[in-house]
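Structure first, sequence second, as always.
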């Protein structure tokens, strides 16, 4: 499937506009909402690359700013996991209200602190989220709710990202649903080494293609 150009959208979250990019391939099998890490945005080049691969597998994507520009300038706000998960839940409700996306099965792709937000939101929504993928994430920051996550969860960590490996191993033990922890050899935290981000993108696409049904049951 060829790449689709993403269209700009605006979500109103907590009464403030948040810019987003909606990529909607023809006959999409599901939609993945991206939860970015601290200091990142809808324009993240790494997540954009992953989104392109998902499009090629027939999976729609929504990349949006969890924080406003003013909020993102406050370091503590970037690590406010409760706020990030709240915003992700609001964005999920927005998706459910849009004609083009309301019938698509949903998944989350979280990076860094965004992975914790994705897991908390998935625990909150239960069967409403069909799959979660974490890239270099901090699932340990969602430790109290990990046992409540029913969505199949894939944790992807760089083989040279030693502190984060340990954090993911600890979180992995608390997940009760279908799960996999995959270490990408030779990769550091941002997967900047040649070929490593491509492995992340293909692993994520395979995971979502496996677990996202064509539509949610009515």
């Amino acid at each position: 499937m060829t790449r689709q150009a993403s269209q700009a959208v605006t979500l109103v979250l907590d009464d403030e506009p948040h810019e987003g990019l909606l990529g909607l391939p023809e006959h999409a099998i599901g939609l993945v909402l991206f939860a970015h890490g601290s200091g990142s945005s809808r324009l993240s080049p790494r997540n954009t690359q992953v989104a392109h691969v998902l499009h090629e597998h027939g999976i729609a994507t929504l990349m949006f700013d969890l924080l406003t520009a003013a909020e993102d300038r406050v370091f503590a706000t970037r690590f406010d996991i409760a706020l990030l998960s709240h915003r992700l839940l609001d964005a999920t409700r927005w998706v459910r209200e849009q004609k083009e996306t309301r019938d698509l099965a949903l998944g989350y792709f979280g990076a860094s602190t965004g992975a914790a937000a994705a897991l908390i939101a998935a625990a909150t929504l239960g069967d409403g989220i069909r799959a979660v993928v974490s890239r270099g994430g901090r699932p340990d920051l969602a430790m109290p709710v990990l046992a409540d996550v029913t969505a199949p969860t894939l944790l992807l960590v760089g083989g040279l990202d030693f502190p984060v490996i340990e954090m993911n191993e600890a979180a992995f033990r608390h997940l009760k649903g279908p799960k996999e922890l995959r270490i990408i050899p030779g990769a550091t935290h941002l997967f900047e080494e040649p070929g490593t981000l491509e492995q992340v993108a293909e692993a994520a696409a395979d995971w979502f293609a496996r677990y996202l049904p064509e539509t949610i049951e009515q």
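Margin note: The chain has seven helices and eight strands.
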